[in-house]
Amino acid sequence: MEDNINETNDKKDFIKEKIVKKTSMKSKLIKFAGLVFSAFILGATAMAGAIFTRPIFEKFADKKEKETKESIVIPRDEPETTRTEKETEPVEDIVQSAIEDYAFDVNSLKAMYLSLAELANTTDNSVVAIRTTNMEKDWFDNEVENTGELPGVIITDTETELIILSPIEGLTDIEGISVRFADDKTYTATVKETDSHLGIALLSVQKDTLEEGTKTLAKAVTLGNSYRLKRGDILMALGSPLGIIHSSSYCNVSYISKQTPIIDSNARFVYVNGDMNNTVGTYLFNTDGELVAWLVNSDISKSKYKAAIGISDLKGLLEKMINGESSAYLGLEGTDVDGNLKNAGIESGVYIKKVVADSPAYNAGIQPGDILVGIGDKEIKSMPDYKGILSDSVIEKPVELVVMRYSREEYVKLNFTINMGAR
Asked: CA–CA separation, 213 vs 266, rounded Å?
């Protein structure tokens, strides 16, 4: 019995072993050679793929890099200082003497008008017709294409796109935009940026879609210096001065308002004579063919005089719009503190005339009649201070506004925390 138990235990207690045949040196060499050959094949394949695809990736990367790095800069204009009588008198004498010595006749008049006509025809090549399309339904639930046209003008020519200034009216909630250039060729466009407060939009047309003939003809206009305009200057109106795209007209500067308040800024307004259309895009050019203003729809424009906003005050805003950047926005309309407020003890600041409803300033509690004297740790003494600080402000970042508010026969200082908005 004991022998049987021991025999059983001997059967259970065993070790299984796997005998591996020792690899010969020859087999090792063959295996190593196979690995080296496989690595060589994979490396060669990868290298060939890299060589083949490198030009494609470099072209793509170069294009993306250009799109990223390309930034448009619009030079700013400085308002001209008032010259003294002593400085202007010799110049006026020279001009008057030249006029008296020149014999004007009918041919002189013809030559002047011919020169203006040639300038108008050349500059008009930069004017485009913007066509908008939108599908609507009639009373019988049938889809009907609704179209509209408005004039624009090319203001920037980059390596990749043409940028067109246009009225914003008619460009919201639409399904398609196309642009017809002076050679009657039509191309697809997209809305790049808009500013509802100024009523303008920037459109983009990709240059790689344009034919060579269109590229040659479609040139960006030069943005002029509206600070140099003075009463009596002759201006050329293009776009749609007669309500027809590519029509033209002429006008004279009758009056200039240098500090007209607009939202978050002020601008020089130019008032011109002439019964011109001011609702669908009329652009004013000086006799050098430079864009200096465009007509706006204002109360005075309903009379025989039309109001135009000068371009020099808006170059900073246009630059940001062209580069796809948003401008800081508070929603205030103001002017420099005048003598009446100085008599009340307010030496400097911006007197707030209007607060736009639902704007960041409105929602924070700023009121008309308040005097803005600071933003953050920076003091505001005038509108140029306000414009400069706003231009450098970070959007959506909380900032403190310091105002003086009239209360119980005296002005008291109030602080408001506000999130900087975007136009």
From this structure: 41
